[in-house]
Amino acid sequence: MDTLTNPVQGRTLVEVDRLRKVYPKGSGEDVLVLGDVTFTLGRNEIVSFLGRSGCGKTTLLRILAGLMPASGGEVRIDGRRVAGPSPDVAMVFQSFALFPWLTVLENVEVGLEAQGIAPAERHRRALAAIDLIGLDGYESAYPKELSGGMRQRVGIARALVVQPTVLLMDEAFSALDVLTAETLRTDLLDLWMEGRLPISAIAVVTHNIEEAVLLSDRVLVFASNPGRVAAEIRIDLPHPRNRLDPAFRQIVEDLYASMTARPDGKTGQGHFFGTGIAMLLPRTSPNLIAGLLEAVAAEPRPGHADLPDLAGDLHMEVDDLFPVAEVLQLLRLAELAEGDIRLTEAGRRFVGLDPDGRKKLFAQHVLTYVPLAAHIRRILDERSTHRAPGSRFRAELEDHMSESFADQTLRTVTSWGRFGEIFAYDEVSDVFSLDNPG
Amino acid sequence: MRTSRNHAARPAAPPLGLGGGRFAPNLFDAAIFLLIVGVFVLLGHGVREMTAPVAQLGTPVTLDPANLPEYALRTTLRMFAAIVASLVFTLVVATLAARSRKAELVIVPALDILQSVPVLGFLTFTVAFFLQLFPGSVLGAECAAIFAIFTSQAWNMAFSFYQSLRTVPRDLDEVARHFRFSPWLRFWRLDVPFAAPGLIWNTMMSMSGGWFFVVASEAITVGDTTVTLPGIGSWLALAIQERDIHAVLLAVATMAAVILAYDQLIFRPIVAWADKFRFEQTAADSRPRSWLYDFWRRARMLPRITRGVGWLVNQIARLPTPITRPPGPPRATPASRRGEMVFAAILAGLVGYAAWHIVTFTRATLSLDDLRAALGDGLLTLVRVLVLIALASFVWVPVGVWIGLRPRLATALQPVAQFLAAFPANVVFPVAVVAIVSLRLDPNVWLSPLMILGTQWYILFNVIAGASAIQTDLRDVAALYRLGAWQKWRQLIVPAILPYYVTGALTAAGGSWNASIVAEVASWGDTHLRAEGLGAYIADATAAGDFPRVVLGIVVMSGMVIACNRLLWRPLYRLAENRFRVE
């Protein structure tokens, strides 16, 4: 554990010790979202939790904030055990979470009001926070009159004004456009470097790799299924950091590689929850699949691309790019390794085919590598009517996963089945069939 | 500056629990239904044993036009008393339902069923009950009238507030927990503001509906007791008794003036003000407007008063009470098994008691023939309601669409439709009755339209709202590909307005059931007209003080309304929501 603590940055502030989170389910086995997560946060340190959606990093942040109880293990801040929302922590939300019926000033004061602080004192402190974060002049405005960036400033001021020990940021910049996010990040970092923020540590949850590298002293990379710390990378680059700096680029590459690393070296289904027909499929349309194949094929080195470069070229976030890339891997149309994507023989062939040929190849791969699709097709073939109600498959899936994941998986497989003309689906009657309209 | 054309007409939450997922009543609904019927039976039983008090109560009403302003004022004051009572009820009961799972199990189905109980059927019990509570005083009668209005508003408002509380956005809920809001602070800072637009819209619509009931409940005869409260309703009753058509027309004019004042001075300013609570992070381009509200905001002195109200709410929010302490750490709450069992046992006991009581009571006083008669009459009224809704739809849907597709016309006519919906149709009844009497028409047919006279407007203004909400690009597509009239209706207009239409038709149908109690029996002086039906059945039983049959009538009517809601409107609404919602 000591190895995780930064000696330069002072003594341990937050200790997370074998933290577990289990979501109980009605039927089937419980879902393990976080499995034995252990790390520490030092004083004067900014740490990013980097990972894909579904790796439990947001759940972790909510447990740190005391909004959610852990199923096992514990969190200590300054030696005190976290058991519910505490004044030691303040959170900045992705959606800003401002009260639309309160003015900027009232929104900033809200946490102080809950603490029962006298109006005059509240006012003074709120104005100081507003001033610090560059919102002066907007005190009496309502959130809907502000731009996204200004709204998030209100969110930050509201968190700072209660003088927490730790500031938690939950994807705080991801709802903003690129320029605004950059400005806000820089401003926040400047205040932090100048020591003007009344906080001792910042924990940032993000899926944006460059953001993690720009901000943090340390990045914890999370892997999913179950959520856990898969890697830790220390960043000692001086601030302000330059995106084009080769050292910066190298760290970005390393992070991509650790995010694409297969959990156990096996090929295939590694990144997806569940096995067999119970494999949880991400919502990925056949259009995206074809699009990514074409993009990789068109790269300067045809059939082989660097994921960070690809993400930049396609203006895609990690969270959008990875699921598609992994679906390609699942379907054996491409392979992922060390931050690179490489088309397989079938993948190359797919790009060269006409629409009809593509459908056939796609159908063949879906039937071979997606057990759920094969299962649906087999049931339909076996029945004399060639029809089966969707509720049947939904119920089967719900034995293994939550209702919403079952719905998402079935929707995905339906869209693949339709594209490959493997089966048809009528939404109104919720019936799968082998009819092929038109 | 654009003015609002559709915002104000859109219900913030599906009405009458339409959003609920269940179609078929479950065991729980049945249990709650039994409980509610049991309470009616108990009331009826208690009231029957009461000796009839003095025959005439209150100051006698005279048909002197000089008194009319005072009567109008008294009627309006009753309305406000009822709305305040409904608001308090809503804030307390709905919050309880949203916070406590056990309370929720009872309150939500109870509200759902109570919404379907005909308010005017209640009147018998409540008048008797309140007269008993304040013997020999008008206060009892006043309370009964106010309670009648209350019952027409409270359930619906509470349901709307409960639904809002259940849909508070997750992130704001987290902020409140994160900063450790006390329950009190959370209520005033998060729950109430978030629910405000829906609740205010619902309150204002309920108040519109309330005028009908205040008119109906001011002059009422239960058995030997006649209650006359000074007000427009009593004036009207006297005018009918004395066959004074001029007095009737005066009442119509006064009522129109009162509703107009209510609309302009209360309804619109409040809806415009409540817009600031709309949960929306972007500024809207079209907002509800009111000249009075604009005037208010432009004035220099007046806004200070509004700010005073804000300050007052702040003070309330800071009030030191037991619930103002910040909450402790969240407990993982595995619901206590024993508590659940005790709760279920108590509930089962109560339901059993209610069932037993109903059986003994009905055994002693009612026969199977009575049930058959009530059901037969119920079917007649059901046919009337359905035929009338169909006829009204046939007329008002095309008109509403035609208006709704013309923005300027819609802006001008929408308030008119809303005004007509608020206008208590029973004030106009005598005019129709005079016509039926003088033309010697068959009351079985011609009394029927009275049931929908006041409620048809709900169809109209909801359809206008639906049609004006059709996106311009879809209309452009229809024009570009030159869709024929039939195709355009089938593929664009009907799907687009269906959710709005269902909302309007359901409100209209519910209102018509209620109106049947005053519409199926009408008189002009000593000429009495009667249309066979459940409304007449209840009205006759009320006039005769025959409580067992009043209870039977109410139960049958509630059952039919619930059946219509579950079997017709809910599936339709769900279809509209799932299939035709443009996202």
Automatic annotation (TrEMBL), chain A:
Classification via Pfam families: AAA_assoc_C, ABC_tran
Superkingdom: Bacteria
Annotated ABC transporter domain residues: 14-249
Molecular-function GO terms, alphabetical: ATP binding
Keywords: ATP-binding, Nucleotide-binding, Transport
InterPro entries: AAA+_ATPase, AAA-associated_dom_C, ABC_transporter-like_ATP-bd, ABC_transporter-like_CS, ABC_transporter_ATP-bind, P-loop_NTPase
Cited PANTHER family: ALIPHATIC SULFONATES IMPORT ATP-BINDING PROTEIN SSUB (PTHR42788:SF13), TAURINE IMPORT ATP-BINDING PROTEIN-RELATED (PTHR42788)
Protein name: Nitrate/sulfonate/bicarbonate ABC transporter ATP-binding protein
Originating species: Reyranella aquatilis
From TrEMBL, chain B:
Listed InterPro entries: MetI-like, MetI-like_sf
Keyword annotations: Membrane, Transmembrane, Transmembrane helix, Transport
Membrane disposition: Multi-pass membrane protein
PROSITE patterns: ABC_TM1
Alphabetized SUPFAM superfamilies for the sequence: MetI-like (SSF161098)
Transmembrane segments: 27-47, 77-98, 105-131, 137-162, 211-233, 245-262, 341-359, 379-405, 417-439, 445-471, 492-513, 550-569
Localization in the cell: Cell membrane
All copies of domain ABC transmembrane type-1, residue ranges: 72-271, 382-568
Primary localization class, coarse: membrane
Keyword Nucleotide-binding: no
Similarity comment text for this entry: Belongs to the binding-protein-dependent transport system permease family.
Protein name: ABC transporter permease subunit
Species assigned in the record: Reyranella aquatilis
Species classification: Bacteria, Pseudomonadati, Pseudomonadota, Alphaproteobacteria, Hyphomicrobiales
